[in-house]
Every structure is written in C-alpha cells, then in structure tokens.
C-alpha cells in the first residue's frame, strides 16, 4: 500500500507564475472591494489560517486603551468646562464692580453739575448787582 504522494511536480515554472498572478489579483480585489474595517478582519483571518479565531488579548487591550482614552478625554473636558465656568464667574464679578463704579461716578458727575449750576447762578447774581 502506497500513500498518496505529497509532492506536486509542476512541469513548468510558468504555472507558478500564473498562481502568483492570480494571488496578486485576489489581493488587489480585496483592497478594492472591502472597506477599510473589513480588510483588517480579512487580514486577521488570513493570519489565523482562516479559522476565524480572534485574539482576545488584542481585543481586551484595544478596549482597555479605548476606555482609558475615553476617561482621559472626559477628565480634560471636565477641566476645560470648569475653567470656562470659573472665567464666566470672574468676568461677572468684574462687570459688577465696573457697573457699581460707573453708578457711583454718575452720581458724582450729577453732584458736580448741580454745584456748577449753583456757582454759575451765584456768579450771575453777583455780577448783575454790581
């Protein structure tokens, strides 16, 4: 009993060239047909021998990296929002101070106008009598 031979005798290297061309065309077709995300899935299948096994270590690491990035983004966003709220409160306080100064200056200007009018009246009255 003889077992089947595992060696394949190709009479010509021209056949190998044809196989290479067909394989290259298949790879090109995969690049053109598949969107970016599914190409990675096809590459993973080829790496695992087409059995469809996924490396759970890479998935877990990617998920962990995603959550760490997400949490860091949330912390930075919270810090920025807090800073903006702080600036708004500070600006409101400064505006209140400026408005109170303006009100007090307005009162001072009105008092000065009254005093000016009184002085002008007094000068007009004293100038008429002399």
UniProtKB/TrEMBL annotation:
Keywords: Membrane, Transmembrane, Transmembrane helix
One Pfam family this sequence matches: DUF4577
Transmembrane segments: 65-89
InterPro entries, per the entry: DUF4577 (IPR028099)
Domain of life: Eukaryota
UniProt-listed PANTHER family: LEUCINE-RICH SINGLE-PASS MEMBRANE PROTEIN 1
Protein name, entry field: LSME1 protein
This protein's encoding gene: Lsmem1
